[in-house]
């Protein structure tokens, strides 16, 4: 067994204390935000050699919530997430760089709508401590931007005044709390 395996710890994402959010321009001037309420995953953390760390996340796209039931149903359709054909959104890291207790660049493969593209998450270690229930927890924040067209999510509507209904750039924001994996 290598030293990297011996020094690594595995953490399970605590979905009840984590949040996956997206934001996209609507009508070219306002921003609509949404989130996914069903996410899971693991963080393998090697604090001595951060480049040996890894992240794996899985999101159920049927759990999309934009606070508008009709819009959420449209987002589940073939116009956007095609949830019947693509029941998972996944992120699997391929590289982690930075400081274990600071800023990180997490590169990985994001698969959404049946398309996989490499993305880079700007991540930050946000803390570590004991919960009031005696459970050790760690926290991370991460952000990135993607083009929805890169994932074959092309639906749109032209506006009479020019422009389109839905912007191409999607801002993704993650707030992750994790506990030791069982």
Can you describe this structure?
The chain has one domain (3-180): Lipid/polyisoprenoid-binding, YceI-like (Lipocalin, Beta Barrel). It has an eight-stranded antiparallel beta barrel with strand order 1-4-5-7-8-9-10-11. It has 182 residues and is mainly beta. The chain contains two helices and eleven strands. Strand 7 and strand 8 form a beta hairpin.
Key attributes of the depicted protein:
elongated, about 5% helix, 11 strands, eight-stranded antiparallel beta barrel, Lipocalin, about 180 residues
Task: Describe the SSE topology.
Elements: H1 3-7, E1 8-13, E2 19-26, E3 30-36, E4 39-46, E5 54-59, E6 64-65, H2 69-76, E7 89-98, E8 103-112, E9 115-130, E10 136-147, E11 166-180
Antiparallel strand pairs: 1-4, 1-11, 2-3, 2-11, 3-6, 4-5, 5-7, 7-8, 8-9, 9-10, 10-11
């Amino acid at each position: 067994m290598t030293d990297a395996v011996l020094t690594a710890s595995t953490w399970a994402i605590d979905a009840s204390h984590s949040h996956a959010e997206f934001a996209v321009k609507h009508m070219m001037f306002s921003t609509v935000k949404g989130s996914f309420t069903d996410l899971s995953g693991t963080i393998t953390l090697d604090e001595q050699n951060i480049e040996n760390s890894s992240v794996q996340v899985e999101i159920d796209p049927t759990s999309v919530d934009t606070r508008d039931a009709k819009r959420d149903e449209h987002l589940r359709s073939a116009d956007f997430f095609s949830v019947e054909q693509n029941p998972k959104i996944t992120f699997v890291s391929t590289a982690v760089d930075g400081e274990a207790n600071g800023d990180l660049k997490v590169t990985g493969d994001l698969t959404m709508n049946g398309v996989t593209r490499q993305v880079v998450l700007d991540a930050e270690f946000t803390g570590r401590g004991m919960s009031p229930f005696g459970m050790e927890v760690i926290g991370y924040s991460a952000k990135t931007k993607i083009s929805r067209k890169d994932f074959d999510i092309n639906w749109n509507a032209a506006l009479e005044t020019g422009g389109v209904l839905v912007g191409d750039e999607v801002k993704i924001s993650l707030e992750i709390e994790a506990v030791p994996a069982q």
